[in-house]
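Table S7 (text form). Paired inputs.
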Amino acid sequence: MRALTIMGHDALTELIDHPVRRRLRAVTLTNTDASPAEIRALGDGARLAEIQWRVSPLEPEVLAALATWPVLERFAAMSVRRLPASIAEALTAPPFRERLTRIDLRGDEDRTKEVAPILARAPFRSLTELTLVSLGIDCAGAEALARSQGMKRLVRLNLALNSIATKGLRAIATSAELGRLRHLDLAFNSRIGDGLKVLADPTHLPALERLIASYVPLSDAARKKLTTRFGKNLIS
């Protein structure tokens, strides 16, 4: 067994004492009231490389406990209400900024547009996948990511359900730091509109293979230009 979903506190305490825990590589916590001490115990002596956190609230103390997991590489927080900026700050500190290859943060009711600029300031060494969905990220946040040297290894970037407009997209499209990007998701960023056609130019994000732009309003002319570059890999 390599992955397990835990629902409820009783299931968590049972897993902590079960030998299968040491063989797991990924775990999802759902509706589980886990203390920092229990999170540390879950990772103690284990080879857990991935956690999906589906519990609200998410507190910085949880990140401190996860920092003790020796091989954690992938962190996801799904549908977390009131996602605090302090969580993004914690992810930029050691050991996360050295080890994490994937960060996936998805908001719910309240939005925290500060998350993108905070992550952009971090000198991530291994980050290849970044998902920041429904966090109210605006053009300033997109521009911060585009300038970030910590993003230079990214191959996948998901910024769906945010508030990015043409100015922010142009910063991403012309970014020297995002030259390795192969997959870009801008779905539901309706303010971009025909500004999306900047990505029809193959010199912009030259490695880009797949563009998701569902619910971004496009004229027929803009869609035609984008289809010329991406073909069936344009999802709109």
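Next pair, protein 2 of 2.
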Amino acid sequence: MNLKSLKSRYHSMIQRCYNPKNPGYHYWGGRGIKVCERWLDRANLIPKGQRGYARAGLQNFIDDMGPSFDPVLELDRTDNDGDYTPDNCGWVTEREQMLNRRGNGCLGHKRSMESRAKQSKTIKDKREAHLIGDNR
């Protein structure tokens, strides 16, 4: 497991949810998205120069998410309006994450959802297959 990459994902999650100066804050914290108490160290919310990182929340995040972590994957929330919790988070490819966004015209539920973009690609692939005589 690449611990440095996993810690980086953790700290980015905290910053997106709790630091109003973070460029993406309005997409997460500004919408009320929070990190579950199990993963949250209140010490992480104190400015860097005034504290050292508390480790309990980070260690809980590593325990919960580390076993399935791969550095090429991104942290993803199944329910985009839900908080960062063990039950609502998983690791996905960048492409999968792009399909699981607000405003992407999601059709379906949770990880099995199909966005309009994905559905459109499937239809296009079938059309092209039909045109060349491959009836899938």
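The first helix runs from residue 3 to 18.
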